[in-house]
Design goal:
The protein is of the alpha/beta class. It has 13 helices and 10 strands. The chain has 2 domains: 166 residues, 3-Layer(aba) Sandwich (Rossmann fold), CATH 3.40.50; 110 residues, Rossmann fold (3-Layer(aba) Sandwich), CATH 3.40.50.1860. It is globular and about 55 Å long.
Length: 283
């Protein structure tokens, strides 16, 4: 991107939300509920999911392309509503990409808000479930230990859950059996709370709570992230994000819009309109 492009492409009072697929909609629905006064764009890179099985270099490349797309659409701020991309790409994007190309814009992730929420609880052992990439990065343990070094973090990967959810298999008996297998080690280690380290997993929130039992705290990540975003926006008026009566919501997917709409409406608990298929690799 040239300096001239950077200077002429002004933000348009829009918050962007990005995920590798549909999982980010479990966060986005709380934005729409708790922060409805803003304009939003949601981008799902469904054609290339799951990110959790890919290399860090590939995850960064894919996420970078998504950021470019959303910034060129006029987003002032982007929320990476994907734990894998937050763990593997966010810091580099903030430190290298933003200062050079979009110094007046911001990118936030979902790991820090959840780490802050759980680190402040009076517990000794936290469980984390996520994709292989997120778990292998140790991102949650690093962030939680920064905030509370006395908390022990037990983490396990659940690589099959994202593709099963994206294929519409969330309510199948086979998925529940696999979920039980993934959660069993954390129950055995007697964690006191469980972090859903993938934005797809809240779609299975009820099943996860039933498996973990009443004694283990399992919170909806979307509620926490929306609450933290509200506080962030209150502190950062320089981003130029203002309430509006227009309240536009536009959706983009890199795969079939009909598939996105049919399953996405179940994630969002609302109708999806203004959806378009795009190719972000050509930017």
């Amino acid at each position: 991107m040239s300096d001239k492009q950077n200077k002429t492409q002004q933000p348009k009072n829009i918050i962007g939300v990005f995920d590798s697929g549909l999982g980010g909609l479990t966060v986005f629905k709380h934005f729409l509920k708790d922060l409805p006064e803003y304009n939003y764009i949601y981008l799902g890179d469904n054609a290339r999911l799951p990110y959790g099985e890919k290399s860090q270099a590939t995850i960064y490349e894919y996420t970078l392309e998504a950021m470019e797309f959303l910034f060129k659409k006029g987003c002032n701020l982007i929320i990476i509503a994907c734990n894998t991309a937050s763990a593997q790409a966010l810091r580099r994007l903030q430190q290298e990409y933003l200062p050079k190309h979009w110094p007046d814009r911001r990118i936030l992730g979902v790991i820090r808000p959840l780490a802050e929420e759980f680190a402040n609880q009076k517990i000794k052992k936290i469980g984390v479930i996520g994709t292989k990439s997120t778990i292998n990065s140790g991102a949650y343990e690093i962030e939680i230990k920064k905030l509370n070094p006395n908390i022990k973090v037990e983490a396990t990967s659940a690589p099959l859950l994202v593709p099963l959810i994206e294929e519409g298999w969330a309510k199948k008996p086979e998925t529940k059996m696999i979920l039980k297998k993934y959660l069993h080690p954390l129950k055995t280690k007697q964690v006191e709370a469980l972090i859903l380290g993938c934005t797809h997993y809240p779609y299975l929130l009820k099943e996860i709570k039933n498996i973990m039992g009443r004694r283990i705290s399992v919170l909806d990540p979307g509620k926490i992230i929306a609450s933290r975003l509200k506080k962030y926006l209150d502190k950062h008026s320089e981003l130029g994000l203002k309430s509006t009566t227009e309240k536009t919501r536009n959706y983009y997917t890199t795969d079939d819009p009909k598939i996105f709409k049919d399953l996405g409406e179940k994630f969002l608990d609302a109708k999806i309109v203004n959806i378009e298929q795009v190719k972000i690799t050509e930017l």
